[in-house]
Specification:
Layout (H helix, E strand, L loop, with lengths): L1 H17 L11 H14 L7 H14 L3 H14 L3 H14 L13 H86 L3 H29 L17 H6 L4 E6 L7 H21 L4 E9 L2 E8 L14 H12 L3 E6 L5 E7 L14 E2 L3
Parallel strand pairs: 1-2
Antiparallel strand pairs: 1-6, 2-3, 3-5, 4-5
């Protein structure tokens, strides 16, 4: 729009000084006189792409017809893109001379001083055009430098945030190692001692299960401590986390009456695989805490690339264990599901049980389905 406006103003300038339309008979040769100025005005449409060529062309057009505005606009465009001061000074001097050459005959005969004054006025106009162009160029460079400065400041803030996060992760890793690891190790040692000294077979089996689960918990805890201490991408160190390949072992060690149905995906992405595994793990943990003795149904369903995991349990047959709970597990599952573009819902069932449902919109490529059937874990 700016280029079109300048071209229109230059056309008006050429029209006004050519004498077209000023009266009857006055425009006999006016159209021919206005043609060079009109062509120079139209050349301004290419001033951003070829500023030097357009400026030279407008200087030549001045010699054939009056169009000073087109030449000044071309000089402004040249100053807007050219950083060399000597070149700009030479162009301004060239404009001051060329703009007055057509009137040189009028200043002969003792009027050379007036010719010098006219050149001075032209040089002043050229200087204004150059200064305006340099101001626009400086403003553009300043805006670019400000954008680079803002980007650098944002990068510094991100680095600071990462440093603070790394410090907090290291602190959390130390607390997990010093407190949780110590307590779980004591549980494993006591369970091992109980397994050796107990007379009852059931007691020995229970102690063995406790010791096995404690050892597995210590392994996962050491892995999570390593992940917290790691500095890198958010997925660093997550490849070896438990996945659906260990689902059978998770169900077998749960001590619950679990029925597994549907198609367990074997080609899901790591994130989806972990989300599904952690959902079943958290659901079984909640059942052990809040509904001991109930029957649990773990169902996997695929609908195209989507995956649905549903864990439903019946009413409890034994009193609930008085274990502390802050519902952080369900909050973590919901955040994990939303991060993957899915959703997590949970709530009581009409028969007094509880239902946990995970829906992920993208699971993976094609699934190699397992044979549908029912598998029951040992009690």
């Amino acid at each position: 729009m700016v280029d079109a406006g300048l071209a229109a103003a230059a056309l008006a300038d050429a029209w006004a000084f050519s004498g077209v339309g000023t009266g009857p008979g006055a425009g006999a040769g006016a159209w021919a006189a206005a043609a060079p100025g009109a062509v120079a005005a139209l050349a301004l449409l290419a001033r951003r792409r070829w500023p030097v060529a357009v400026f030279v062309f407008t200087l030549l057009a001045i010699q054939l017809g009056h169009n000073v505005l087109a030449a000044l606009a071309a000089l402004f465009s040249l100053a807007e893109q050219q950083r060399t001061r000597r070149v700009l000074a030479g162009c301004a001097l060239a404009y001051g001379i060329c703009a007055n050459l057509p009137d040189l005959d009028d200043y002969r005969g003792g009027h050379l001083s007036e010719f010098a004054v006219a050149i001075g006025y032209s040089l002043t106009a050229a200087g204004v055009a150059v200064v305006l162009g340099r101001l626009v160029l400086t403003r553009r460079e300043l805006a670019r430098h400000m954008a680079e400065l803002r980007a650098a400041q944002e990068h510094q803030r991100e680095l600071h945030a990462q440093t603070v996060l790394a410090r907090e992760r290291a602190h959390l890793a130390r607390e997990m190692h010093d407190v949780v690891s110590h307590q779980v190790s004591l549980i494993a040692v006591r369970a091992g001692a109980l397994q050796v000294s107990a007379d009852s077979t059931d007691t020995k089996e229970a102690a063995r299960t406790i010791r096995t689960l404690s050892a597995a918990t210590l392994d996962e805890l050491r892995h999570m401590v390593a992940v917290l201490r790691a500095s890198g991408s958010r997925d660093a160190g997550l490849d070896t986390q438990p996945a659906l390949l260990l689902l059978d072992s998770l169900i077998a060690d749960s001590g619950l009456d679990v029925i597994l149905t549907g198609e367990v995906p074997r080609d899901a992405s790591r994130a989806v695989d972990r989300a599904a595994y952690r959902t079943v793990q958290e659901a079984l943990t909640n059942v052990r805490k809040h509904a001991p003795g109930s029957t649990v149904v773990v169902d996997f369903r695929r609908s195209g690339p989507a995956l649905d995991v549903t864990v439903t349990n019946t009413t409890a047959r034994h009193p609930a264990l008085g274990l502390p709970s802050a519902r952080h597990g369900l909050l973590g599952l919901r955040e994990r599901a939303e991060h993957l573009g899915g959703a997590l819902s949970h709530g009581p069932t009409p028969d007094g049980g509880y239902r946990l449902h995970l829906q992920l919109p993208q699971c993976g490529a094609s699934t190699q389905p397992m044979a549908d059937g029912t598998r029951r874990s040992p009690e």
